[in-house]
Specification:
Length: 275
Amino acid sequence: MSIIELLPEFVAIPEATFLMGTPEQELSTLAQRYGGTRESYREESPQHQVTVPAFALARVPVTTALYAIYVQATGAQPPLNRHQAQPPAELLNHPVVDVSWNDARNFCAWLNEQLAAIEMRLVDTSGQTMQLRRPKTAFRLPREAEWEYAARGTDGRLFPWGNTFDPAHANTRESGLKTTPVGHYSMGASPYGLLDMAGNVWEWTATQDRLYPYAPADGREDLEAPGRRILRGGCYANPQGFARCACRFRLLPTVRNEFLGFRPACNLPAGTDEA
């Protein structure tokens, strides 16, 4: 299949102000419910308002099949345990794993080089096609605030689908599975129709690991700054508490393992041609 066929559908997400993080008074409740101590959840607090400009985010993570085209075209390191020329057929529609932050950035840069041959399907949050146009600005990793807003919307929900965990809505440790095909848990959609925002694989964001409140102008979005980068969403090996929309994890940008994947974003409206 071609890049055009394998590129995820992108969802246009409107500008909004949302509550990011977890209220401090709820930290003890999280510790009682999911384990650890109150301080284990301190990095999610204080909850605070963040305004996120309009942007677009891939409906599902990048698949093994799409990443394989990149590997073949560039000679990049293949994913973990998939070092043959072609990935196993049964994993082609699963999220790619064993991808570092640097790998994910390099993939986005490569994807931008292919723009002359790519038309991105852009849909609004109701699923209606808005336009088929090439973005003027680059594909990139989503910023941490963008990711959380896309996952939970503006009503402060704990999980993409609501406030109560349901093992039928996400691939977490409770499922007893490894990775599952992207979009398999359709009932786990976020308010904007995004899938796999909870479980399956951890997803890299562009953002440097810093304490809240989130402030995009304080240097945390500097892509050249050293230090760990934030991941979101939990994975198939983690229990449900890690699948919460506010849960934060961080790793050095060189780390690769079987739990790490990503999905690209791009800007709106300046990021698209006029219809």
